[in-house]
């Protein structure tokens, strides 16, 4: 059953695509070739007239004729398939498959009293309104280099990352997208790579209002924030969904780099117990707003601290209380660390988080948290690279008893991938220091000893 419906979906999609390619392949239906290279948008330059086949039938016959010519209809943006002409109706047909009357299912049409007399070619005026953004940009941008391949939509904002060769066309691209994309009021281009602490994109307004406060939905959950001041990436929505799906009500989530809440808010909505943290005061403010807006305040505590401080203070205390006072076999504890450029550097905060005596009285079957740490890796064999990164920063090898999975999240750039490494914390990890930490501590003790001796002398 599922298979049949998938096949049906596939057929619908292929039919649509076939139609789309036919439009783009039919030279007469493309925008005039004179617009190639245009850098300042002149909408009137897109006007052209074209001869297209048509059927003229009485109004009473339209309902019966339409199913017979369905595959042959001319579909373009803002173009009515059926137009009233005096007392009759004009059905526009596509010039590629319909070269003459014989191209149509003539026998069926004749049974409906439609004959060659009803068939003719007519002049059709096309203009800027009749093409999609994609079609317009394809006809304008240089053919020898890659066109506009993708952009993100965040509420009313379209967010582009234009390659250098497209920069001379940025104003035009912005205007076309604003004209054509539904509810698009602002078009911005990524101004530089994200390398600031709060990971928000540096934006360059290329068209529309400098209005960055957006409302958007991710996996059905509404969010609101200022896109120019916080981190938000719609390309992570599937990953957010994967994590949230893992959680059941009463599970616990510690979200170390929470942003405006795409893990934390849906988790709190699911009645998980959430502790969410972000260093950026703007993210923290919008996180609070989103928790309130989604009516999940009772299930979430929010903090505006450095991730390490959050781990060694809030997470430490809350986790200790849970390990000591609840049955951890009845629910799961998760820790998300999505700051892929540097989250691994925070892993050593878990080493020696407790003294052995803090956890000495715990039952043997106690369940420790699962950490989901995100990381980028560049080059060949990125999966192995990311494992090594996590192991060296944690100061422990992830054997089968700890490692839960290394999952590919997305390709960020050529040769650069983002992964999630999921692993269990253990009594040993939580109560012993990382090897280098031990050495550092020993040095500090030795120095103290020397200093004391010197003082004594
Ligand atoms: C890549 S974003 C992830 C946000 C969100 N979890 C998501 O999945 O979309 C990383 C977040 O970490 C925050 N951040 C950066 N450095 C931090 C630090 N040292 N401590 C806590 N948060 C930090 C940034 O403000 C940003 O919101």
Can you put this structure into words, describing what you see?
Helix content is 32%, strand content 23%. The protein folds into three domains: 124 residues, Alpha-Beta Plaits, CATH 3.30.70; 71 residues, Met-10+ protein-like domains (GMP Synthetase, Chain A, domain 3, 2-Layer Sandwich); 193 residues, 3-Layer(aba) Sandwich (Rossmann fold), CATH 3.40.50. It has 457 residues and is α/β, with parallel strands linked by helices. The N terminus and C terminus are likely disordered. The protein contains twelve helices and 17 strands. It has a seven-stranded mixed beta sheet, with helices on both faces. A four-stranded antiparallel beta sheet has the order 2-3-1-4, with no helix packed on it. The protein has a four-stranded mixed beta sheet with strand order 5-6-7-8. Bound molecules: S-adenosylmethionine.
Bound molecules: S-adenosylmethionine
Secondary-structure-derived class: alpha/beta
**CATH fold-type name of the largest domain:** Rossmann fold
Low-confidence stretches: 1-5, 452-457
Q: What's the number of domains?
A: 3
How would you describe this structure in keywords?
Rossmann fold; disordered C terminus; Alpha-Beta Plaits; alpha/beta; 457 residues; single chain; binds S-adenosylmethionine; 17 strands; GMP Synthetase, Chain A, domain 3; seven-stranded mixed beta sheet
Sequence-ordered SSE layout with sheet pairings:
Layout lengths: L1 H24 L22 E11 L3 H8 L12 E4 L2 E5 L13 H6 L7 E8 L6 H8 L10 E4 L2 E4 L9 H11 L5 E5 L12 E6 L4 E6 L2 E6 L10 H10 L5 E4 L8 H6 L3 E5 L3 H13 L6 E4 L3 H19 L7 E5 L32 E9 L3 H13 L8 E11 L2 E9 L2 H5 L3 H22 L1
Parallel strand pairs: 6-7, 11-12, 11-14, 12-13, 14-15
Antiparallel strand pairs: 1-3, 1-4, 2-3, 5-6, 7-8, 9-10, 15-17, 16-17
The structure holds S-adenosylmethionine (SAM).
The site of S-adenosylmethionine (SAM) has 20 residues, from loops.
């Amino acid at each position: 059953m599922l298979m049949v419906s998938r096949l049906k979906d596939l057929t619908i999609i292929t039919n649509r695509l076939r139609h789309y390619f036919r439009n783009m392949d039919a030279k007469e239906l493309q925008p005039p070739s004179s617009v190639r290279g245009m850098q300042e948008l002149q909408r009137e330059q897109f006007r052209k007239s074209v001869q297209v086949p048509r059927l003229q039938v009485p109004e009473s016959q339209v309902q019966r004729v339409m199913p017979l010519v369905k595959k042959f209809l001319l579909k373009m943006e803002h173009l009515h398939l059926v137009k009233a002409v005096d007392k009759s109706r004009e059905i526009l047909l596509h010039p590629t498959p319909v070269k003459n009357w014989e191209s149509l299912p003539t026998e069926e049409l004749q049974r409906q009293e439609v004959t060659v007399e009803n068939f003719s070619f007519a002049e059709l005026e096309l203009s800027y309104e009749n093409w999609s953004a994609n079609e317009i940009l394809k006809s304008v941008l240089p053919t020898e280099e890659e066109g506009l391949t993708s952009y993100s939509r965040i509420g009313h904002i379209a967010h582009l990352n234009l390659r250098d060769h497209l920069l001379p066309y940025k104003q035009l691209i912005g205007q076309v997208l604003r004209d054509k994309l539904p509810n698009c009021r602002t078009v911005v281009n990524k101004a530089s790579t994200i390398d600031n602490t709060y990971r928000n994109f540096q934006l360059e307004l290329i068209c529309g209002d400098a209005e960055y406060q957006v409302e958007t939905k991710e996996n059905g959950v509404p969010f609101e924030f200022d896109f120019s001041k916080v981190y938000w990436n719609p390309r992570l929505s599937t990953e957010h969904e994967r994590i949230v799906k893992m959680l059941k009500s009463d599970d616990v989530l510690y979200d170390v780099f929470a942003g405006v809440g795409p893990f934390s808010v849906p988790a709190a909505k699911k009645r998980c117990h959430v502790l969410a943290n972000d260093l950026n005061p703007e993210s923290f403010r919008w996180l609070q707003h989103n928790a309130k807006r989604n009516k999940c305040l009772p299930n979430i505590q929010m903090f505006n601290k450095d991730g390490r401080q959050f781990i060694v203070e809030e997470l430490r205390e809350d986790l200790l209380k849970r390990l000591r006072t609840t049955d951890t076999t009845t629910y799961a504890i998760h820790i998300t660390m999505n700051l892929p450029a540097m989250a691994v550097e925070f892993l050593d905060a878990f080493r020696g988080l407790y003294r052995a005596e803090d956890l000495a009285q715990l039952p043997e079957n106690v369940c420790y948290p699962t950490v989901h740490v995100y990381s980028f890796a560049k080059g060949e064999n990125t999966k192995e690279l990311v494992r090594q990164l996590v192991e060296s920063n944690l100061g422990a090898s992830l054997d089968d008893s700890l490692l839960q999975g290394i999952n590919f999240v997305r390709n960020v750039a050529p040769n650069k991938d983002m992964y999630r490494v999921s692993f269990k914390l253990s009594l040993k990890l939580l109560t012993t220091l990382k090897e280098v930490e031990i050495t550092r501590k020993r040095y500090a003790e030795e120095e103290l000893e020397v200093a004391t001796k010197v003082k004594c002398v």
